[in-house]
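User: two proteins, same treatment. go.

Assistant:
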Amino acid sequence: QVQLVESGGGLVQAGGSLRLSCAASRIRFSIYAMGWYRQAPGKQRELVAAISSGHDTNYADSVKGRFTISRDNVKNTVYLQVNSLKPEDTAVYYCNAKFLTTVYWGQGTQVTVSS
């Protein structure tokens, strides 16, 4: 069974940093586009950052210049470096793997930013 397991979330003060990780198993990781989404209470899930199988990246405007997505196809892991965190970044962050019509989700990791 395919698994995406996120880690690295936590409680951090505004201005702080975290590194989120998502380890994938039982998929041919290198061919999947990987993404990080987040969902704050009462809000819809939104795309934060994505990286293609060719390592092309794109970011939500709200995180450009603060967040960096990367992938390691040897470790089957995608990372999200989150810097200069703001209280509005508080959310559950989900990892996503997509190839054609096949999509997998992780269980999420909580990021809480205190002011």
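Protein 2:
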Amino acid sequence: QVQLVESGGGLVQAGGSLRLSCVASGSSFAINTMGWYRQAPGKQRELVAAITIGGNTNYADSVRGRFTISRDNARNTVYLQMNSLKPEDTAVYYCKATKRYAEYWGQGTQVTVSS
């Protein structure tokens, strides 16, 4: 089992920045991809950004150029630097870790962007 703990969410004004962190513990070896997803009220959960163990990244079009995902494999931690935040970025942000035959989710952290 892998446990994921997110932190760094909060309330910020439009145009501001936040940095989310997600630490993996437990059987955290062999995690390939780590990513961030978000879910706004009444909407489906969507991919925000993902990064493989080799450093390849993938971003949603809506955040490309504003958000940056990074990873510290030695610390089993993934980060999401969010700049130029918009009210439409308001959501619960979830961390996900993917192994070959399993995936794990964190409990989520709320990000609220005020206009």
